[in-house]
Amino acid sequence: METNGGSAPQAPLDDPLEPGARPHVRLEDLVRAGEPLTAKLARRTAPGVLYERGPEAGYLRCTACAHRCVLSPGRAGACGVRFEQDGELRVPFGYVARHYVRSVETNTIFHVRPGALSLTFGMFGCDLRCPYCQNWKVSQALREPGSDGEPIDISAADLVEVAVQAGCEVLASAYNEPMITAEWARAVFTEARRRGLVTALISDGNTTPEALEYMRPVADVFRVDLKGWSADQYRTLGGRVEPVLAAIGEARRLGYWVEVVTLVVPGFNDKPDGLRALGAEIARVDPDIPWHLNAFYPRYKMRDLATTDPAFLVDVAGVAYARGMKYVYVSNVADRVRELSHTRCPACYEVVVRRFNYETQEVLLSGGACPSCGTRVPGLWGPSAA
Ligand code: SF4
């Protein structure tokens, strides 16, 4: 989806916020400056829940993501879509930026209903600003000059009806950061659960315990990107690594099914030591958490970089397995690395789910366990693996 629409917000939205810092963007200024998308989104809001009062009278602190922006009267946070108005927090509601029906694996989720269809929707805006974002036309629509997103008005019930009519078993919020629109995601997921769907947050992980707890009653899956290991790397993206690591642990503690993705970008986060450290952090939380090592392809502001060497990803996966992780996948290079798309039994190494890249070809699990040795393989497998 191409986006367009007038002048972009100025520099403040692109500045990473220190925790607790006050954002600099006045929503009314953006509207006055002829910012059609911002104006359109400002009309599609509802009162928010994820915030607290303070730290001064008339101020709000948003708790949806780890920036924890302090919003003074009339101002939006770093994501550009949550803002204070007349003493309350207004948050996005009642629209989507895009939605597609595809296999659940295209969300890089491998242990949930393999081979099922997922309706995946996204909104506008993001708390981070990754220069290699695949979905930048929606996630960065409020920051990019010439962006023009067109929100698609829809109710939660109608969106879920689309999913049900298409035969989906899963409904996912992705493409931008779902926690910045958590109240809308919760409304949609509540309806999805009522209709029997599995629900998934596809998140950058820069979130808070409050937001994870708020979503947990209606959300089954937390698929999180772990994009680097250093403060410098995360500063480039506009965030910090600590909240992401904390969110992985907290999500697991709350009972989400968690899968982690690391897009390995040459020259950015492709140091073997750093990737080993990421694998160790995930395994420390739970070695059953699947880790997806995805190959990078040039895009957005990183078009001049090379693609990731598949052999390097295989080496990283091998080290992760050797250090105790049980499910490590290499994706985006299906023609070169087929074997690391399958799920194997961690005890006897038989293939229990056979895939080609993001397509499930065969589910061999029996009652969620290896048919050869009976070892349980964790996941939300559903009827196809019963
Ligand atoms: S969701 Fe938006 S307003 Fe809330 S803390 Fe994050 S960037 Fe700030």
UniProtKB/TrEMBL annotation:
Database matches in InterPro entries: Aldolase_TIM, AmmeMemoSam_rS, Organic_radical-activating, rSAM, rSAM_sf
The Radical SAM core domain, residue ranges: 124-271
Keywords: 4Fe-4S, Iron, Iron-sulfur, Lyase, Metal-binding, Pyruvate, S-adenosyl-L-methionine
Cofactor(s) needed: [4Fe-4S] cluster
Transmembrane helix as UniProt keyword: no
Transmembrane annotation, as ranges: none
Gene3D superfamilies in UniProt: Aldolase class I (3.20.20.70)
Annotated protein name in UniProt: Pyruvate formate-lyase activating enzyme
Gene Ontology MF term list: 4 iron, 4 sulfur cluster binding; lyase activity; metal ion binding
Disordered as annotated region, ranges: 1-21
